[in-house]
Structures are given as structure tokens and as C-alpha cells.
Amino acid sequence: MLAGPPPTYNTGSIPPTMHQPPSQMHGNQYQPPILPPNFQPNQQQFPPQTSMMNNGMSQPSVQHPYLNQGPSPSTQPDISTPPIMNSQFQGTQPPLHNHPPSNMNGAPSYKQNQYPNGPPSVPHPYPNSGLPSSNNFGPPTTGTNPHLQGSQPPPHNPLPSNMNGAPSYTPSPYPNGPPSSFPSGVHPPPYYPNMPGPPSMPGSQPNGISSYPGQPPSMPGSQPNGISSYPGQPPSSGPGQQSFPQSRIDADMVPNVIQVVEQCQEKIQEPFITNAPGLLPPIVGTNFICQDQGSCNPRFMRSTTYAMPNAADMVKQSNIPIALSISPLAKLRQDELEPPMSNFGEIGPVRCHRCKAYMCSFMQFIDGGKRFICCFCEAATDVPQEYFNHLDHSGRRMDWYQRPELCLGSYEIVATKQYCKDEKWPEPPAFIFMIDVSYNSVRSGLVNYICHILKTDLLDYLPKDKNGETSTVRIGFATFDKQIQFYNIKTSLGQPQMMVVSDLEEIFVPLLEGFLCSPQDSRGVINSLLDQIPQTFANSQETETILAPVIQAGIQALKGANCSGKIYVFSTTMPIAMAPGKLSNREDKKALGTEKEKTLLSPVNNIYTKLGEECAQNGCAVDLFVFPNNYYDLATIGEVCRISGGEIYKFNYFSIENDGERLLDELKRNFQRTTAFDALMRVRTSTGIGPIDFLGNFYMTNATEMIFGTIDSDKSVSVELKHEDKLPADGNTYTQVALLYTSISGQRRLRIITLALTVTSSYTTLYPACDLDTIMNYITKVAMRSVLMSTPKSIRDSIITQAANMLACYRKHCAQATTAGQLILPETLKLLPVYVASLLKSDALTGTLTLTTDDRSWLIHRLMSMNIKGTSAYIYPRIYPLHTLEENSIPSSMIRCLYERFADTGAYVIENGLVMYIWLGSQLDPTFVQYVFGLPSASHIQPEKCRAVELDNPLSKNVRTLLNMIRDERNSYMKLFVIQQRDPLESFFKNYLVEDKGFTGGASYVDFLYHLHREIRNILQ
Ligand SMILES: [Zn+2]
After folding, report:
1. For the chain, how many helices (H) and strands (E)?
2. Which of 204, 516, 521, 629 is deepest in the core (most CB within 10 A)?
3. What are the tens digits of pLDDT across the range 52-87?
4. How far is the CA of 362 from the centre of ligand 1 (A)?
């Protein structure tokens, strides 16, 4: 039984991956965060619960619903309905003739003869990149789109319904009429018993959007054949009953992401309550609420498995990585509990005297409350007198529910002076803006635009603490080309003063005071500075720039002010001027995809690495906004961001028209997200297991502590754990993250996050406790790091080997009873093959022919710090139909990443967290373009310039709402392209349809399953 009323939220009306906008979630009513039962903090912001129960004697025993669906941890998994039990997999070797083995591992075909005349001339519209100019897109886009004009014959789908070229399976779908219920997530085509063909073409409809049917029936890929044979809703049939006449597996017969997510979503009826060790949280794509009752909210930390193998041998056999993904500042839902602040007063945080772990809900008090036993190392520590409290008859402290550290999995502590540098309270952080004013920067309009948005918009978005009234951030400005210009913005001056530094070898900041000022105090001077900078440099002819001295100057300025902070660098060209950090062009696109690419993707020297280290040690980070038209050498320069914990934003061929809105939006998001400065993170674990490897963007000077100039709510790190000893089977194991940091208001704090896992010696318990999203996040990061050390082929091979071994071990230990030759996937890992197939051909890992070296470096940088939600969308992009949005304010079910699922009368948005495409079918009702983009016809669409404009009709409103929801979910504006079916750019868009065969090679999901199955059988033989 739960204390208090159940939370009032509704998860059914919105796509599971999407968080609901506040207005839809709660109406206009304030909903207090969900608190643990009887939690009565004395802080004002946490009102006591109105109804109390059970006197705190016993914990409510709510099992998470997600656990109930699979086998219970202690029982043999139910292998009678595995996701795949198909006769195709039995006995005989699967046919592989369609795809030569060289392609089976997802390797891109970098065969020279693929493009005998060189790669296609279409530039890669990568994420943050822009396109050189719209006239490079191939055919002109004005007035000549043959698919939308004239009396073309009804289009046939450009691809056969079976992408593999195999015979299509077209049974009579509904001999007795349509089934009464369709599998969730699959939208049935309308059933037209008396209609031999599709309804009239949208183009012939009278004006008005009402002509958008729910789901067009004319789409070959959405024919009911797939739906009727869908095995995921199992049931009726055992393996023997599922026989299909076709010679190849149909895409509808394999586990699919959309269905898994939607089924998990349906099972989520109540909050996920963390009141016992080892509870597997809902999968990442679902929309759920967490109630912290001892272990942390999974948004802060997830584990690859919630049942820790008790011995190293089990890890070795299973090949399941043992790792944590940690996002210590993750954004929570509005109705979840932010870690409350604990104050231990003068004595400071209470910690185990031996292993230094912080107080948490799993420490056990003994001796009437005089000592506590550490859950990590089992040492007993005396309770400081100031902290003493009596125990109740169950051995629990009387103030259990009043103290966050005793009953919650995450809480914060106001640090004492011992936790500050030199035992001095820190100053609030400062932001420094360093603006490139060279010829390129001025000419593109960038200088003017940045100054304009800072003045009119951004300075009002400077961050403040949750309860703070105004921002305490001080700001400073410098500009640079071959020299650095500093500006004194002291309010008493009335007008800003410029000071030029041209000695770049021994950089110094020529201002003792007046460089960093409060924007509230100096707003007048700042405004006139931002007016004057564009004028001063309007006629700049300087094409060469410097960079390392600029960053060095930023560090010096922050050091001089004795504060942490951020250095925002806006840079347009690679630094080639004579100065430290000068670089030269080493772009060699032919090397990408070959054994030589690691040299290209590694820094050419350590100058920027050293700068990053200096940043991290001084509590600051560099956020780099690059606007290159040519090679920039991000592999080298990006090091300063990687080591300091900063971020790279990339705008190729910047123009205000195409990118201005995105730049402004990204800067606002950057300012507004929760950020910790001058941070130090440490992971502690129970005796017998310990952190061994750390992945992410940070700096380390020893084997245990991660140092971040800054870390924010969008960032995560992965920590691999290694067995040092055998763990007691059937016990628990604990992990605790401690993040020491300076808040935006200058307060030194600790955030403590604790997670309890169970321990197991049985594979049949291990597999059902796996969290695939975390496993994929970890595998992705390992692969990204390997790109700099290994070859693309060996990275792919090792991922395949790992996946095959994971599944083979399951087959061997958990599913012996099944027929040899069957492919059996554990419930929790049934999407492993599709995710691995997708990762293997992802552009970060393989590149594509038109992806630049800088794009690759940027991708690697982003993925290394990406949280699980981010990698999940990157690996399997989300697709929503837009043409159904006229009547429904929220999209119907997501679409699988298969081209055949796109109706040519439809419009869809696809996003992977880094880029967004809107795809318009060739037979889309022309009014869609009018109602959404405000253009007279599709022939006016320019892929990069097109926007969902604000128009007064429901479709426009709903499309814009959806796009904004996606942006908020990813916390990124994302570059948007509007692509029309059969447009030359469509091939780039198809690259994100990861279940299909890759654009540059790489097996389709179904083909990869064959390959993986063969690998598994080889292992088992
Ligand atoms: Zn301890």
C-alpha cells in the first residue's frame, strides 16, 4: 500500500519517449513532488504528506510492474514464448546469398568502385553541419518537382515491400475481416470492405486538411500482411504454429523497438519505487515517474545489470559489461523529487571512517544508534555526538523520515570549508565570451548577430540558482583575430575601453578589474560595447586567427578573479596565425574508414589537451561554437572541450537565415541547464568490486577521481566495474557517486547518489536483470574511444563478438531445453541485435562517404558524454507521423526505421537527438505544405531553410508543438532539413532508417540477425 493518493498523471496519451509538456501533464495545477511515505523534511519546500501510514515500521512492498512481465529473478525464464522462435532458424543454415560476408558485419562498403567517379556530389547534411549552399542540392527546387505536379500516374512505392529483395509474403490478411485488436503500436490501416482501391488521392481533395486520413491505406509497406502475422503478440501459437511460406524472415517477425517500448509503457501503471535493491527500472524510452525510496532515481544512475554477477568468471562467460551510466545532474520530471539538501552543520558530512563513503539509506545503525556499519566496507564508525539519534524497535533511527540521507537514494549536502579549494569559500562562477572578429566571422554576419542576441536576449537568460532571485554570474568580453582585444566594462566608465594584447607567447590579461562585471550593474556599458564591436571590426581584412592564446587568456582571467566558470569561444576558422596552438590542414578524407583514420581523428599535438587540463584544474570549461567553412581540426582543438567537460557546437557554412534561430536556442539551453562548476566525482562500491575504467569527457590525475571544469544535466559518464573478489551470492552490492561542485550561485555542495543491486550466481537471474539501454550506452562509448586506437573493422568485429557471446551464454545456460539451432533471445536483450546492427553502421563508427573528419570528431565528442536517453535515440532514431496531427494534438504511434513504413501520402519527422528531418511523401496533400510551412507548394521547399512557421490552423500548431517537444526532450534545437520523397537528399535521410540496409553498406536488421545467429552457433559448437 502506498502512502497518499496515487499520482495523477497520464502516460497513455503521449508517445512514450516524449515527456509531456507541463500544460498537458498537470493542467495548470501545481503538483507537489512525490515523496517517500512519511518523509517529513523540515525544509519549507517539502510539505509533509497529508496521510501517514504504518508508523514508518515497514516499507511498502510495491514491486515495479516491469519486473512482473519477465521471469522473476529466481525462476527459470519462460522460454516458451521467446521473442523469436521461428522455423527459419531451425536446423538449416540461413540463406545468406543476398549479402556477401564482407557486408554482414555491418562494414560499410568503402569500395573504390562503388563511386567510380568519386562520391556523390551531394554534401552530407550532418547534424550540426550546414550545407554549402542550396544550389548544391542537385535539381533546382523551384517549380519543377515532378512528383507533385501535373497528372503523374499514381506512384508506386520505390522499394519492394521487402527490402531484401526476397519474395514478398502476401497472404490474404483478413479472411474473416480485420482482427478486433491490433498489436499496440501498429496502426491498422482503415478497413474498407467495399473499396477495392485506395481512397481518392489527396491531391484531388478540395482545399482543406480534412483530407488527411488517419493512416493512408495505399502504402504498400503498411499493408496488413505484416500486421496479421505479427508474432510479438504471441500467444496463440508455439513455435510449430508459426510457419511462413517465404524463404526469408519478414521484418514483422523480429523483435521491434516500437512495440517493445509501447508494451513496456502500457505496463507502467504506477511510479517506479526504489525501495529494494536490484529493481530493474523501466526502459529508457518510456515515460515513467520515479519515487526515490532508498536507491536513486534511475535518471541519475543506471546499471547494465541489476543483479551483479558474484564472480569475475560469470562476467567473462556472459560478456555482459558491468558498468554504471551516471548523469549526476540529470533533469528530472517536474513531479519528481529533486535531491533535497541535508545540512550536517559544523561537523560536515557523516562518512564511513574507513572507506569514506557518505551516509546513505543502507548504512546500519547499531549500539543503540552510537555506531553505524558501512554498507560498502562493513567497517563500524562512531556516530558523531551531534548526529546521534535513538533507534526504534526495528533498529531504524527515529529521524529516519526527516533526514534525506537516511531514506533517499540521492541528496545534497552544503559542503564545509574543508571541501573548498584552499579552504576558501568559492566565488560565483563567471562567463567569458570570446568572439572571433576576423574577416570570415564579420562577413558571415556572425559578429553582428552574436552581439545582437547577447544584448537583446541572452543576457536575460543568465542562469541562477533554483531559489535565487537574480543571476550572480559575472561576465566578460574579449574579441580576437591575430590579437586579443579585452574590454573594460566597469560601470563607472560610462563607455567600454578596449585593450589589445599582441604578445601571444606569454599571455596575460591587461585588466585587474573591470573585465568581469555583473551584467545588472554594467548593463549600459555592456550594451554599448555590444553595439560597438560590430562597427569596430566591420571592415576587418584579417583572415588569420589564433585560438590557444585566447583560451589561455580566458583561464588567466578566471584565475585572476579567483572563480570557476565557462569560456564561450565563437570561432570561424582553424588557427593558422603564428602563435602557440597554430595548426595546419591535415584533412585526408581518403583515410576515413581505413586503418589510417585513427591518426586523423587523434590530436596532432597536445597543446589543446594541456589547455583542457589547465581548465579542468581551474574549475572552468570551454564551450566551443565553431562556424567553419573548411577543415577546422576538431580532433585537436576539441581536446580542450573534452578534457574540461565543455561542449562543441558546430555550424558549418553559418548563415543567420539558416542557423540564427538554432544558435540562439542552443545558447539559451546551454545557459539554462543545471551546471556544476569546478567539480570532482568519485565512485565507491562494495568490497569485492571496484571501478576500473572511466569513459566520458573529463580529466583524471589519479585512478579514482574524475575532474570536470563543468558538468551539466545533459552529460553522463560510464564507469566499468571489475571484480576484485567473489561477492557473497544472494547478498547485495552498493555503489555510491559523490559529486563535489560549486553551484551557479557559488555554493560549494556535494551530491550523493546511491544505488543498491542484488548479487547473483545464476545466469537465469542475471539475464532478466539486464538493462539494454545502459549496455548500449556503454558499448557505444567504448567503441568511440576505440576509434582513436583501433581500426574500424576490429571495432565492429569486437562488438559483434561481444553481442554473440552474450546471447550464446544465455542460450547455453538458460535455454538448453529449446531445439538446437533456434535463435533464442532473452527478454531483456531482445533488441540487442537491432541496436548492434544499427550501431555498426552508424556514422560515428563508420563515417559515410560525405562525412568530414571534423564531423566525425564532433560526433565522437558528443557520444562520449551522451546520456542513455541520447544514445538510445542516436542508435534508433524516433519517427512520428505528422500528417495525422490535424485532429490529434499528439502523434499517433511511432514508426519503425524502415523505409517501407513511410506512406507516400504522409509526412513524418525523424530525429536522432542530433539532427531532425521532415520527410514529405510524393503524394502528400499539398495543403500540408501550405498549412505547415506557409509555402504555396512543395516546389518552393528549400531543405535547409524550410521552417514550420506560425500559422493559425490546428495542423500548424500541433506540428510546432511536436517539434518543440522533441527539442525539449533532447534539450537541443537540432538542425532541421525538409526532404521530399525522391529528392537527391533523400539518401541521407534514408541513412537514419537503421533497420534497412545501410546507405553505404551495412547489413539490414534482418540480415544481421542471420549473421548473429550464425556467430552464436559457431560459439556453441
Ligand atoms: Zn566504509
Report:
1. 26, 28
2. 516
3. 333 333 333 333 333 333 333 333 333 233 333 333
4. 11
- Cell numbers that stand for 742 in this block: 560549486
The pLDDT of residue 428 is above 50: yes
**Same domain, yes or no: 347 and 464:** no
Statement to judge: residues 485 and 543 lie in one domain: yes
Mean pLDDT value of segment 9-33: 40
Strand 323-326: give its sheet, edge to edge.
301-303, 323-326, 717-723, 689-695
Domain limit, last residue, from 673, 689, 722: 673
Domain-located, residue 742: no
What's the CA-to-centroid distance between 375 and ligand 1, angstroms? 7
Q: How far does the centroid of ligand 1 lie from the alpha carbon of residue 379, in Å?
A: 5
Q: Within a domain: residue 398? A: yes
Number of domains in the chain: 3
Say which CATH number the domain at 886 has: 3.40.20.10
388 and 450 housed in the same domain: no
Last residue of a domain, one of 650, 673, 696: 673
Q: Would you call 979 helix, strand, or coil by DSSP?
A: strand
Q: Would you put residue 4 in left (φ > 0), alpha (ψ -120 to 50) or beta?
A: left
Ligand 1: distance of its center to the CA of 619 in Å?
29
One domain, residues 381 and 477: no
Report yes or no on 950 lying in a domain: yes
* Ligand 1 geometric centre to CA of 52 (Å): 33
Higher pLDDT, 202 or 293: 293
SS3 171: coil
Specify if 544 maps to a domain: yes
CA distances from residue 753 to 324, 404, 682, 683, 708 in whole angstroms, order as listed: 12, 11, 11, 9, 17
Cell matching residue 282: 523501466
Predicted confidence (pLDDT) per residue in 480-535, tens digit: 999 999 999 999 998 999 999 988 888 888 887 899 999 999 999 999 999 999 99
Q: Are strands 430-436 and 474-480 parallel, antiparallel or unpaired?
A: parallel
Expressed in angstroms and rounded, the spacing between residue 767 Cα and the centre of ligand 1 is: 29
Q: What is the CATH number of the domain that holds 356?
A: 2.30.30.380
Could you report the per-residue pLDDT of 789-807, keeping only the tens digit for each? 999 899 999 999 999 999 9
Residue 391 Cα to ligand 1 middle (Å): 21
529 and 612 share one domain: yes
Query: What's the first-to-final CA gap in the chain, in angstroms?
Result: 50
The average pLDDT across 190-217 equals 27
Long-range contacts of 507-511 (CB under 8 A, 24+ apart): 507/549, 507/552, 507/553, 507/556, 508/553, 508/556, 509/553, 509/556, 509/557, 509/560, 510/486, 511/486, 511/557
Distance 543 CA to ligand 1 centre (A): 59
How would you label 634-653 residue by residue, b for 16+ Cβ within 10 Å and e otherwise?
bbbbbbbbbbbbbbbbbbbb
Beta bridge partners of 380: 373
CB-based contacts of 181, cutoff 8 Å, min separation 6: none
**Is residue 545 domain-shared with residue 638, that is, in the same domain?**
yes
Find the 365 Cα to ligand 1 centroid distance in Å: 13
463 and 578 assigned to the same domain: yes
- Distance of CA 376 from the midpoint of ligand 1 (Å): 5
| Integer Cα distance of 262 and 729 in angstroms | 34
Domain residues for 379? 341-407
pLDDT at 272 over 50: yes
Q: How far is the CA of 55 from the centre of ligand 1 (A)?
A: 30
- Positive or negative, the Cα torsion across 212, 214, 217, 219? positive
CATH number of the domain to which 589 belongs = 3.40.50.410
User: How far is it, in rounded angstroms, from Cα 25 to Cα 27?
Assistant: 6
What is the whole-number distance in angstroms between the Cα of residue 309 and the centre of ligand 1?
A: 21
For residue 286, give the nearest of 260, 307, 324 by alpha carbon.
260
Region at 267 (left for phi over 0; alpha for psi -120 to 50; beta for the rest): alpha
C-alpha span between 547 and 482 (Å, rounded):
9
